[in-house]
Write a structure and sequence with these properties.
This protein is of the alpha/beta class and 647 residues long. It has 20 helices and 24 strands. The strands form 5 sheets. Strands 16-15-17-18-14-19-20-21-22 form a 9-stranded mixed β-sheet. Strands 10-9-11-12-13 form a 5-stranded mixed β-sheet, sandwiched between helices. Strands 1-2-3-4 form a 4-stranded antiparallel β-sheet, with helices on one face. Strand 7 and strand 8 form a beta hairpin. Helix 14 packs parallel to helix 16, helix 18 crosses helix 20 and helix 19 crosses helix 20. The longest helix is centred in the last third of the chain and has 19 residues. The N and C termini lie far apart (64 Å). The C terminus is likely disordered.
């Protein structure tokens, strides 16, 4: 809410703050200080001018305003409602007869203005539209640059910004009270979770970083709600190198410290101007490598303890101290060692799968590139396990029971998909949902939360679906071997599955480089190494999905799926399994032709398929090596026995 033209006397200011913020201590001083009532702060970072009532939060909020603006923050009301409540508290007459001229001025102040009118006014003053920054479909921030005026500290055009919001099909000036989302570039949303995300003071700098594929976000409008996508991330801040920039950076650091995995502050190097930023670095010829190296050298910001005293904006940044050391334990007990011959005659019990030949107890990693249908197949598996219905009427469900579904989707989105796959209200009684974004970071208590949840469930779930791994772990420690850290993270899932003898299906992303099911999983070898089974879903050129399964104790399996059309567009139909399912498009075409047209020689087959005879010969040899065809005297015939499901 913009500042209003209404003024208040000192006594009215004191009355309002005493009633609205009773824990606020008012003392005889030029400035009152206390804990911020907006973000429920714990330190004296909230400052108030006793004579005017204007306030400013030097901590998480990083902004201020007048009494009506504070009332809007605390109550969430519009201008009229906030004004009425403030007047009620201080005892001022708010009736239309009280002051008609003042009422008319205030109503004019609250009246909305079309964004196009504001733009036209700016253009007449020498401003030109430079860029629009989208904060959602109904909110944007617009950057204007002056045609002749230049910033005093930089050789750049003077700039100004305006918010615009969509309402009733029209764009209006101002933010309209809408929540401002985190402004981040594409590289940020697609980054590997261990990659550093750089916070910039402004959207234009975020876009400049994005052009170099550097993950970046703007901390200028950051608040508790918009900061949620940063939970558990490794973050460094690159503020403008001036007093306002450093003050804003430290306010945002107070907000981010409790939720991110690590936090650092970039100090611009000497070769950049005094208030240098990424725009200046690019102008000097810097590339992505130099920017990333600068971020890697960022000074770590220490985590403040809950009882540490807030000193406002003058907090000194000190290097992180080593917090703990490993104590000497000279009298530890030796390892428990068992003679294996004592169990030699014990029977080797077979592990019963949940779904025949596909899903077994233990930890299974299921990965594929983004937007390839992993979640749709996971929902079909959930349906099969909950209801006992064979997966695609082919793969028999051996064990049914409750399923715990940890999802990055909302509960409504998840419910829509489970209903679409055929689950009834009664089926949903066996399905338990938890939102990934509400979990703690995996290494910050999330693993313990999940284990305690499973322990409390009665009956225990037979399957947990974790969608996705990156969304759950949220961050890793900033030091040490990445492979060791990744193994330790996934191993916690493994230990939970072993403790409760259940299946856990963890959904993950594939790396861009191709490889087998294990090699193509995103991250180091530490992730698949801790798993019992690894699934990889890849799309063929004809649109079919090939699911390859590699297990520690299970044989390799291959399944071919095809996505359904129509209302069930995202779900998969199982076509076949076995070696035949893994054949490429051309080789499948050759095999099918030989099945339907036996006893033809290669030349005849090549002519009928309009295929190069040499290429056809290669396909026939490979099919013969796999035991799928054989060359008889009369020509090639197909060998039966290849498993095919669904026709």
């Amino acid at each position: 809410m913009a500042d209003s033209p209404i003024t208040f006397s000192s006594s009215e200011v004191a009355t309002y703050y005493k009633a609205r913020v009773p824990q606020f201590q008012q003392r005889e001083a030029s400035q009152w200080r206390g804990a911020c009532p907006i973000h429920n702060g714990k330190h004296h970072s909230f400052a108030v001018e006793p004579t005017t009532g204007r306030w400013f939060c030097h901590s998480a909020c990083g902004r201020g305003g007048d009494i009506l603006a504070l009332e809007a923050e605390l109550s969430g009301g519009n201008f009229t409602a906030c004004k009425a409540e403030v007047f009620r508290i201080i005892g001022r007459d708010d009736s239309p007869r009280g002051n008609p001229k003042a009422r008319q001025a205030e109503e004019g102040k609250a009246r909305k203005t079309l964004a196009s009118d504001v733009r036209r006014t700016l253009e007449l003053s020498g401003w030109r539209l430079k860029k629009e920054f989208e904060f959602g479909p109904e909110l944007r921030k617009v950057r204007f640059e002056h045609m002749s005026d230049v910033q005093e500290d930089k050789e750049r055009a003077e700039k100004t910004y305006r918010w615009e919001h969509l309402e009733g099909g029209k764009w209006w000036s101002g933010d309209g009270g809408k929540q401002k989302r985190l402004y981040a570039n594409r590289a940020f949303w697609e980054r590997d979770q261990v990659e550093i995300a750089i916070g910039f003071e402004g959207e234009n700098k975020v876009d400049a970083a994005g052009e170099m594929s550097i993950a970046g976000f703007s901390f200028k409008e950051l608040d508790e709600e918009s900061a949620r996508p940063l939970e558990g991330s490794n973050v460094v801040l690159w503020p403008d190198h001036d007093e306002p920039g450093m003050r804003m950076a430290k306010a945002r650091a107070d907000l981010l410290t409790p939720i991110v995995g690590s936090l650092g502050l970039i100090e611009p190097p000497a070769e950049l101007p005094e208030s240098g930023d990424i725009i200046d670095a690019v102008a000097l010829g810097w590339g992505a490598k130099q920017i990333r190296e600068l971020a890697a050298r960022a000074k770590p910001l220490p985590r403040q303890s809950a009882d540490s005293q807030d000193s406002g904006v003058d907090t000194e940044v000190r290097p992180q101290e080593k917090i703990e050391t490993r104590p000497n334990r000279p009298h530890q007990a030796p390892l428990k060692v068992h003679a294996m011959d004592t169990q030699f005659d014990e029977p080797d019990t077979a592990v019963e799968p949940l779904i025949e030949d596909l899903l077994f107890p233990g930890l299974t990693l299921f990965h594929a590139p983004p937007k390839r249908g992993k979640t749709f197949l996971a929902v079909q598996i959930v349906h099969a396990v909950v209801t006992g219905t064979p997966l695609e009427n082919c793969l028999i469900v051996k064990k049914t029971g409750p399923v715990l579904y940890l999802s990055e989707m909302s509960q409504a989105q998840s419910r829509k998909r489970t209903k679409a796959v055929g689950m009834t209200r009664e089926d949903h009684r066996q399905l338990f949902f938890s939102a990934v974004h509400e979990m703690r970071p995996w290494a910050g208590g999330g693993a313990e939360e999940l284990e305690a949840t499973v322990e409390a469930m009665n009956p225990k779930p037979v399957l947990i679906v974790a969608d996705s791994l990156l969304g759950i772990i949220k961050a890793m420690q900033s030091r040490g071997s990445v492979a060791v850290q990744e193994y330790a993270i996934v191993d916690r899932f493994k230990r939970i599955s072993d403790r409760f003898s259940i299946s856990i299906l963890v959904i993950h992303h594939s790396r861009k480089l191709k490889g087998d099911a294990i090699e193509s999983a995103m991250g180091t070898g530490g992730i698949p190494a801790a798993c019992d089974d690894v699934w990889a879903l890849a799309r063929e050129s004809d649109g079919d999905g090939i699911l390859t399964c590699e297990g520690r104790d299970n044989e390799s399996r291959v399944y071919r799926f095809r996505q359904r059309s129509g209302d069930q567009g995202g779900f998969w139909e199982l076509i076949e399994s076995g070696e035949r399912a893994a054949l490429g498009v051309q080789r499948r075409t050759v095999l099918k032709f030989v099945e339907e047209n036996p006893n033809l020689n290669p030349k005849q087959i090549a002519e009928r398929l309009n295929m190069n005879e040499k290429t056809l010969g290669t396909h026939l040899r490979r099919l013969a090596d796999a035991g799928m065809v054989r060359n008889e005297r009369t020509g090639y015939i197909a060998l039966r026995g290849q498993r095919s499901v669904g026709g």
